[in-house]
Amino acid sequence: MATLTLGLLLATAACAAEEPAGTPRKTPRPTPTASATPTPPPVLAPLRGTVAPSGGLDRPSLAAKIDNHEGARPQVGLERTDIVFEELVEGGLTRYLAIWHSDLPEEVGPVRSVRPMDPDIVTPFGGIIAYSGGQEVFVDMMMAAPVVNAVFDFDDSGLFYRDDLHESPHDVIVRAGELVGRHTDLPAPAAQFSYAEGASVPTALVEGTPNSVVQQRFSDSRWPSWGWDAGSATWLRSQEGAPDLDAAGAQLRASNVVTLLVEIDDYSYEDIPRTLMIGTGEAWVSTGGKTVHGMWSKDSAAGSIRLVSDIGTPITLAAGNSWVELVPSSGSVEIIP
């Protein structure tokens, strides 16, 4: 046994002696591990600034001229808009140019006729506009804009119908889902406002002053207002002192109220006022129970509205829906603490 052990030791020593000194020993290579796939940034809804499902907004926006006559209330689908513009029309009344993209109802309305400022409002959004008709000169202006026109007066495909809930002429409804479904080749809209993202906060919360009500007066017939509701963290809309309700009986609300003081052309189209959208003027942006003052500007029909605060910083909005109040300079804006 001792002889066998001695033989093994001698053999091992001999092998070691045959290996040149300093020869590096091979070490096994580590098995490569798959690197973590980077998380893509969230896709934001261009007209709300909210996180959108991937591929869920690959469709055009739909604009519609929505009636605001007492006989048209409550409107259909107005509570699901991304952006609403309220504008002065004849008789001191107002109408809406409402935009849907991130949340598209099956039906919206009642739709009414276009006015001369509507092409300048809707052009930056592209997509589709639905309305009932209008004076030939205004329809021609709208037809010349780079958007698809869907017009009740010319429709023979069943996109529009008259409902039983409103009296004529405040009863024309458009099948919004079907209309957009016919134009899936059109691109999604570009963002129109800047939204606070990530750790940033909306400009009004940084530079603004706390307030409870934003009161706008378009005329002796129309004076909407917005009251801050901390419970829902939204502005609640009223008209002529009464809550403005949707079809389900809930008060209309907005994350942002953008109030623009605008000039009105009262002479070019007889008794039809035209809001001058290309220009500049005072602006108030109300978000999160605060309001920041600044200026608005729009340099062309295709250009979006730019908002800048009094200290020169671009104004960012909170993620969510927005109402844009185009208050004539003959009216008034009151920010109530």
Describe the structure.
- With 337 residues, the protein is an alpha+beta fold.
- It is 12% helix and 31% strand.
- It has helices spanning 2-18, 118-122, 136-144, 176-181, 203-207; strands at residues 62-66, 83-88, 94-100, 128-131, 148-151, 160-162, 172-174, 194-195, 209-210, 213-217, 224-229, 234-239, 242-243, 253-254, 256-262, 264-265, 274-275, 279-287, 290-298, 306-309, 316-317, 322-328, 332-336.
- Strands 1, 2, 3, 4, 5, 9, 15, 18, 19, 20 and 22 form an eleven-stranded mixed sheet that branches.
- β11 (224-229) and β12 (234-239) form a beta hairpin.
- The radius of gyration is 31 Å and the shape is globular.
- The chain starts with a helix and ends with a strand.
Main structural class: alpha+beta
Q: What's the β-strand tally? A: 23
| Average pLDDT score | 91
Report the β-strand fraction as a percent range: 25-35%
Give the proportion of residues in helices: 10-25%
Structure annotation, total helices: 5
Global morphology: globular
Distance between the termini: 104 Å
Low-confidence stretches: 1-24
State Rg.
31 Å
Spell out the helices and strands N to C. Answer: HEEEHEHEEEHEHEEEEEEEEEEEEEEE
- In this structure, how is the largest beta sheet organized? 11 strands, mixed
Descriptive keywords:
about 325 residues; 11-stranded mixed sheet; disordered N terminus; 6-stranded antiparallel sheet; 23 strands; alpha+beta; 5 helices; about 30% strand; globular
What is this entry, summarized?
By secondary structure, the chain is of the alpha+beta class. It has 5 helices and 23 strands.
